[in-house]
Amino acid sequence: MSPPVLRLVPRCCVLSGLRVGPEDVSAFAAALHRPPRDLESLLGLRFTGSVRAVPEGRIVLAGEPLLEVTPLLEVTAPLPQAQLAETYVLNQVNHQTLIASKAEHPVVDFSLRRTHGPQAGFQAARLGAMTGFAGTSNVAAATALGLPAVGTMAHSYVEAFEGEEEAFHAFARPHPGPVTFLVDTYDTEEGVRVAARVLRDPDRGPGCAVRLDSGDPGALAVRTRSLLDEAGLADVRITVSGGLDEYAVDDLVRSGAPVDVYAVGTRVGVSADAPYLDSVYKMVEYEGRPVMKLSSAKVTAPGRKQVFRRPGDADVIGLADEPPPRNSEPLLETVMRHGQRTGSRPALRECRERFTADLAALPSAARRIRAPVPPRATVSEQLGTLTERVRRRIAERTDSSAARRAVSTRRAASRTSGPG
């Protein structure tokens, strides 16, 4: 079973700016080894369609393929435009939803060195802030998004000095605000003692910390807390990093380890335990005709849809034009019309408020870190009826075609056979 996932609106500004110019046609033709005149019909193509999506920050329900999958996004456009948008939309939806689903914990983001490129690092910082992270070490993202920039020193900085005490003094001297000392370059306990001597400076100010980046974080945090308290530094905090993910953080919290800040990087920034999200982008209606796939293990539901959320009850996946269930709210909203955005992108604070409210409304079993039990969406009667009707129509057409082929085969056989 998958945990709830967070849905993010893709960058509609890219769709609104989609234009196929002469240089694009030339590039397509070269890639396909075809003369440019074969692709001239694409010249001038732009996105003129509409997009409906779940607002950024809302939680939607994961589920099995077919009817349990909540529709996150709906693109209505001429077929060539919709198909050109497919790869980009899936790229944005899959990656950001996946990372956001990992980032539901009050920690700080240290992932930029391990994410799959600078854009992915920026997205990880933004998604972390949306889902509860207190800051990021990605200074560019912090500046662009108005997030707290956080960080410590590197082991290489400590190694550049004759000893840890010289390194800590040099690091603290030009910093007017709180500092965090990395204490495990050589021997962790000795590093804590050295840091304590430096931090006893009466001018250091509040908010300082030490950082543990290796070894058994729980045991070392207990020993570090003891050493700091003995030195009269009860206000100095402990930051832990090094291979953490939500499971390690949960274990440390449950064990009562005296950790004040969790700095997560690789395992969250690349979603190490679940490296992909298998969402799909499928046609559900063409020229007013509902369509569906019947491929093995890839069956889709026909028709334009809406998701209705009811407080304290299961979501209902229904048709876009059917009456909503009592006391429900529709999740899909129009974000693009005639190729243009219908409004500005929501502020990060607004997205975080949506996420916080949706998370609080989930059953406790769905919020568990391990073995979560997510709610399951149900299907409306109208959508179920339409699905069966389209399925029968396809089956009848397929059976009729198969029968005609069988008759043709028998006639051909009778013409080629003769007296023995």
Set out the fold topology.
Layout (H helix, E strand, L loop, with lengths): L4 E2 L5 H5 L5 H11 L17 E4 L5 E2 L12 E4 L2 H24 L5 E2 L8 H13 L4 E2 L2 H7 L9 H5 L4 H9 L7 E3 L5 H12 L9 E4 L4 H14 L6 E4 L5 H10 L5 E4 L1 H4 L15 E2 L2 E2 L14 E5 L6 E4 L9 E2 L2 E5 L2 E2 L6 H14 L16 E2 L1 H36 L4
Parallel strand pairs: 5-6, 5-10, 7-8, 8-9, 9-10, 14-18
Antiparallel strand pairs: 1-3, 2-4, 2-16, 11-12, 13-14, 13-15, 16-17
EC number: 6.3.4.21
Keywords: Glycosyltransferase, Ligase, Phosphoprotein, Pyridine nucleotide biosynthesis, Transferase
Catalytic activity: 5-phospho-alpha-D-ribose 1-diphosphate + nicotinate + ATP + H2O = nicotinate beta-D-ribonucleotide + ADP + phosphate + diphosphate
Explain what the structure shows.
With 420 residues, this protein is an alpha/beta fold. The protein folds into 2 domains: 5-11 and 48-100 and 279-381, nicotinate phosphoribosyltransferase (Alpha-Beta Barrel); 104-269, Aldolase class I (TIM Barrel), CATH 3.20.20.70. The protein has 13 helices and 18 strands. It has helices at residues 12-16, 22-32, 79-102, 118-130, 139-145, 155-159, 164-172, 188-199, 217-230, 246-255, 266-269, 348-361, 381-416, and strands at 5-6, 50-53, 59-60, 73-76, 108-109, 135-136, 180-182, 209-212, 237-240, 261-264, 285-286, 289-290, 305-309, 316-319, 329-330, 333-337, 340-341, 378-379. The strands form 5 sheets. A 6-stranded parallel β-sheet has the order 6-5-10-9-8-7. Strands 4-2-16-17 form a 4-stranded antiparallel β-sheet. A hairpin with a 6-residue loop joins strand 13 and strand 14. Helix 4 (118-130) crosses helix 5 (139-145) and helix 7 crosses helix 8. The termini are far apart. Residues 1-5 and 63-70 have low confidence and may be disordered.
